[in-house]
Amino acid sequence: MQLHVRPIDLHLANPWKIASSQGSSTHTVVIFELTDPDGTQGMGEAAPASTYNETARGVMQFCRGLDASRLSFDDVPAAMAWLESLPGIPSAARCGLNIALVDGAAKRAGQPICDLLKLGFRENAHVTSFSIGIDTPEIVRQKVSAAADYPVLKLKVGDSRDQENFAALRSVAPAKPVRVDANEGWRTREEALRALELLARDGHVQFVEQPMPRDTNRKDLLWLKKRSPLPLYADEACHNVGDIPHCAECYHGVNVKLVKTGGISMAYETLQAARQAGLKTMIGCMVETSLLISAAAHLAELADHLDIDGNLLITNDPFVGVTAKRGILSFADAPANTGLRVGPRREEHG
């Protein structure tokens, strides 16, 4: 087995700012290519986040010292067990490698990943929200207008202009369903509760993600959950299956991202565990290409909600896979029928 990794700078259509990070116009991801001696190729993607102290450089450095001969499309669990035994493996690197392994395994089986996992994928049944980052009220209005075709919005908050930005959104989309993501932006339980009560008055807010820092003590989280007028979803506080018992106690739902869990296999386990614990489930994303977004889409049947729009926020996506016209996910025009169902974007010439 041979491994090739390469970084790609993704250019955002608009500078991206959330409560836990500064604004940025680019985001670097790492593309993985695993090639078996018989020519089967599996592809993956790592979208490291500074929130978790991971970088593209760190992922690349880890992969340079990796013995890819220990990996196999024929026994993904064994390959992952070996990877887990390695010290200091970044979660983002684990994600890219796992997706490449599962992609190759599904291609070997002649199936798309969703069928390999016995989930299937229903066309015209899954809707992703479209995210609006923190900005000035005027820019928020412009972003919401540009997102008119998307039936559900997600507004990032945790800024001094939260109320103004929410009002700006509503001036353009008065009754559209909205999800709110605080990204750990409210520092105390009282501040969080005041914000939640204001949002609840709107009547069209579905839920709120990560209202307080991930390391908030259990007592304060339980206090807030008991009083919150809106469902609370863990994001930064939910990395993998090991976090589900805590999340089931302190939140109403979880946002599962492949880059946090470490790939498709672990996201599958985390979503299943969350459902068994009675939690609502959402699949989320970072700023990503269509390769990683498509990987997440193969798990759509395990989610109550989807927020996999990272590829819609960039201008130089090098891949095509799942589409999201009017927010509705579809593989109908995917360039392949097996594995991730992803292919390179072809240059259009006039």
Give an overview of the whole structure.
This protein has 350 residues and is an alpha/beta fold. It folds into two domains: 2-110, 2-Layer Sandwich (Enolase-like, domain 1), CATH 3.30.390; 130-344, TIM Barrel (Alpha-Beta Barrel). The protein is 33% helix and 22% strand. The chain is built from twelve helices and 15 strands. It has helices spanning 56-64, 76-84, 91-109, 113-116, 137-146, 162-172, 189-200, 218-227, 244-250, 258-261, 264-276, 290-297; strands at residues 2-18, 21-35, 41-46, 130-132, 153-156, 178-181, 205-209, 232-234, 253-256, 280-283, 305-306, 319-320, 323-325, 328-330, 343-344. The chain is globular, with a radius of gyration of 20 Å. The termini are far apart.
Summarize the structure.
The protein is an alpha/beta fold. The chain has helices at residues 56-64, 76-84, 91-109, 113-116, 137-146, 162-172, 189-200, 218-227, 244-250, 258-261, 264-276, 290-297; strands at 2-18, 21-35, 41-46, 130-132, 153-156, 178-181, 205-209, 232-234, 253-256, 280-283, 305-306, 319-320, 323-325, 328-330, 343-344.
Question: What secondary-structure arrangement, pairings included, does this model have?
Answer:
Blueprint: E1 2-18, E2 21-35, E3 41-46, H1 56-64, H2 76-84, H3 91-109, H4 113-116, E4 130-132, H5 137-146, E5 153-156, H6 162-172, E6 178-181, H7 189-200, E7 205-209, H8 218-227, E8 232-234, H9 244-250, E9 253-256, H10 258-261, H11 264-276, E10 280-283, H12 290-297, E11 305-306, E12 319-320, E13 323-325, E14 328-330, E15 343-344
Parallel strand pairs: 4-5, 5-6, 6-7, 7-8, 8-9, 9-10, 10-11
Antiparallel strand pairs: 1-2, 2-3, 12-15, 13-14
Helix pairs in contact: 2-3, 5-6, 7-8
